[in-house]
Write a sequence for this structure.
DNA sequence: TCCCTCGGTCCTGTTTTCCAACTTACCCGA
DNA sequence: TCGGGTAAGTTGGAAAACAGGACCGAGGGA
């Protein structure tokens, strides 16, 4: 215990459990219903229940009733949840390049009309950020 | 089972288990030794052993002997491992903005001399990618 | 009426994970 | 030579997480 304090660790404490990011992927792709999310992710239903509840509790999802009779619910992303799209894009791009064999299973298009290949740049100079192109200014030591 | 085929899922199958990304974070920040990685992540030693072994097996890390007598090892990132830096940066930025309260615990500087704030842009038009700014062209349905 | 859907809950057994102590192999200083 | 320290794990037992399937309640449709 008494590990390094870090926003990566904090982020993973919220979305790092198994199935959480896949559930968010589904909602981001427009799949909002419990049964569909369960089917598409492959998570067992009870685990998915606890994951979705946690994501609602921490404010990444909202559970909205979309039908009164019978009561039916759907999950929608909050602003914090939507902000995770950069993480999912980075993960998908990395998976496409280094893990998945063959063609990318999912292809996205940017509003500019071209196939989306995400690129991470420095918000200040707009140059791409390359591995080793950063230095640590300040960091918590455990 | 029989879930959606997707590079996000494939990526998470490799680095999605608890402690894996934190171990990679440490190596990326220059911490290469077992004991230090264990201390800084907070992972228990046995779990860390299996995680590091898996990361070596899938080719994200290499285990190198840096001392013959006694035998001592250190972990270094392969190119695939280094490529994960975009994922970690996205996660850290999201954590800084939406999870961590107060100041970011870790501050990085870009080679341009300014504090690094990563920005995800489209590699083609160089415009920022915003939530909902993409459409799905092709996708596997389970 | 009977069967179906949706959004879960419950139960049971298997896997993982956690935690602390132990091990091996060597170095160092007194 | 004795004791202590470090590095990189192993081991064993308890606790937690997970998988998979049955079940449930409120309604819908034929």
């Amino acid at each position: 215990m008494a590990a390094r304090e870090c926003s990566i660790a904090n982020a993973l404490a919220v979305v790092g459990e198994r199935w959480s990011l896949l559930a968010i992927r589904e909602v981001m792709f427009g799949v909002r219903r419990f049964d569909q999310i369960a089917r598409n992710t492959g998570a067992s239903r009870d685990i998915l229940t606890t994951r979705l509840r946690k994501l609602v509790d921490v404010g990444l999802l909202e559970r909205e009733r979309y039908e009164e009779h019978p009561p039916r619910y759907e999950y929608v992303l909050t602003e914090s949840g939507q902000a995770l799209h950069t993480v999912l894009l980075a993960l998908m791009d990395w998976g496409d390049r280094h893990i998945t064999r063959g063609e990318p299973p999912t292809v996205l298009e940017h509003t500019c009309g071209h196939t989306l290949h995400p690129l991470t740049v420095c918000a200040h100079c707009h140059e791409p950020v390359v591995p080793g192109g950063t230095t640590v200014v300040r960091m918590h030591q455990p």
Remarks:
- The longest strand of chain A covers residues 61-67.
